[in-house]
Automatic annotation (TrEMBL):
The keyword Oxidoreductase does not apply. This is Membrane protein DUF2157. It comes from the Bacteria. The chain crosses the membrane at residues 48-69, 81-102, 114-132, 138-156, 186-205, 217-237, 257-278, 285-303, 309-331. Residues 361-389 are annotated as: Disordered. Residues 375-389 have a biased composition (Gly residues). Keywords: Membrane, Transmembrane, Transmembrane helix.
Length: 389
């Protein structure tokens, strides 16, 4: 049992791809309506600006109500334990309100429910941590918080909670390894290994049909993992993090251990990401590889400046513009699975549901439709693409 109707979530994902097919002329409006009737989606629809406004309004309203009630009751029960229990009770009440609104108003990531979910998990987490002893290390607090946040991710599939869970895990690892003598040296390698493992897990499960409820969470986890991977292997980031952990900080960040290895990783990891992105035709790897290579060049320039910053900015801007013009013209014709044409994601998710595929095939054979339209023959990866288009 989840907060949102899982059937509607699955149908919503299918309809997104069916709508793209309709825009490509593979289905006319009548057949699209038949498929929509076969796979109904009852969630309330709104645009992004309204959702942002409702999110902010709901956060303000919830915060105002919480502080007002806490102030009134605090005068009667002026004790630390009361505030912690009050936080837990308030979080459960807000969670109950979120569930009622989701069921009665058919909200799905509409801003109101996102705000209430974040507030509920934050209040319960704050209350639980407040009841714990004050002398625990940070990583122990994080390990206690993490299951609570993951429960919120499992029940609500909220993206902000996914980011919170990822940040909690990284904070726990960071604080835990700093307690060891060799922790500062080994921490970047641990974070790189964790990031690579989480990315592999996200890519493996993001397109599983029975996990479509959390598909966006897996995609976000993949992006967060690649970001953390680039940070963990970057020489500048490792050196600065080492500097911030020193008890007595000199005027300038000192040299770190294994500096040549981190210089190698700073340049090699982005190249590996670009290679894998080209080989597997995965957009996240290509984007993060390009960003990582840019960070590598910026890191090199920071420690070994040859020309002025203005010269670097101008020359790099011209180089990037010329590269973009060349790629646009070169890829105007598809080459080895790459193209500059507007991208419509692969519809393979439709093939994950046999009922949807049979319905679409049954409703596609009509005058004016594309004859001999064949399904299948491609791979799909949610954040980008698979090995074949």
């Amino acid at each position: 049992m989840k907060a949102y109707n899982e059937t509607w979530v699955h149908n919503k994902r299918l309809m997104e791809y069916v709508a793209r097919w309709q825009r490509q002329g593979m289905l006319d409006a009548a057949k699209l309506a038949q498929i929509q009737a076969k796979f109904p989606v009852g969630f309330r629809e709104s645009n992004g600006f309204i959702e942002i406004g409702l999110f902010v309004f709901s956060i303000v309203a919830t915060s105002g109500s919480y502080f007002l009630l806490a102030t009134l009751l605090g005068q009667l029960f002026n004790h630390d334990v009361f505030y912690h229990v009050f936080n837990i009770g308030s979080g459960l009440a807000v969670g109950f309100l979120a569930g009622r609104l989701i069921n009665s108003r058919n909200y799905y990531r509409s801003g109101v429910d996102n705000a209430l979910v974040i507030a509920a998990v934050a209040l319960v987490t704050a209350g639980v941590v407040g009841l714990l002893p004050n002398n625990l290390p940070t990583w122990q607090y994080c390990l206690i918080i993490l299951p609570l946040v993951l429960m919120g991710v499992w029940y609500y599939s909220d993206l902000l909670l996914t980011m919170a869970a990822f940040a909690t895990l990284i904070t726990a690892l960071f604080d835990f390894f700093l307690d060891f003598p060799a922790g500062k040296t080994g921490l970047p390698f641990v974070l790189m290994a964790i990031s690579a493992g989480l990315y592999g897990m996200a890519r493996r499960y993001e397109n599983r049909d029975h996990l479509v409820y959390w598909r966006d969470n897996f995609i976000l986890l993949g992006w967060l993992s690649l970001t953390q991977l680039l940070i963990s292997c970057n020489y500048f980031a490792v050196r600065q993090l080492h500097y911030w952990t020193l008890d007595k900080r000199p005027a300038e960040a000192p040299e770190i251990a294994l500096a040549p290895l981190f210089w190698l990783l700073t340049t090699a990891v982005p190249i590996v990401l670009l290679y894998l992105g080209i080989r597997q035709k995965e957009r996240p790897l290509l984007i993060m590889g390009a960003i990582g290579w840019g960070l590598a060049l910026a890191t090199w320039r920071y420690y070994y400046p040859v020309f002025s910053l203005e010269f670097y900015l101008i020359s790099n801007g011209i180089l990037l513009a010329l590269t973009a013009i060349f790629l646009i013209r070169y890829l105007s014709v598809p080459r080895n699975g790459f193209t500059d044409r507007p991208d419509e994601d692969s519809p393979k998710e439709l093939f994950l549901n046999a009922e949807a595929l049979s319905t679409i095939q049954a409703t596609s054979g009509h005058p004016g439709s594309k004859e001999d339209m064949q399904f299948g023959g491609g791979d799909f990866g949610g954040g980008g693409s698979g090995e074949r288009y």
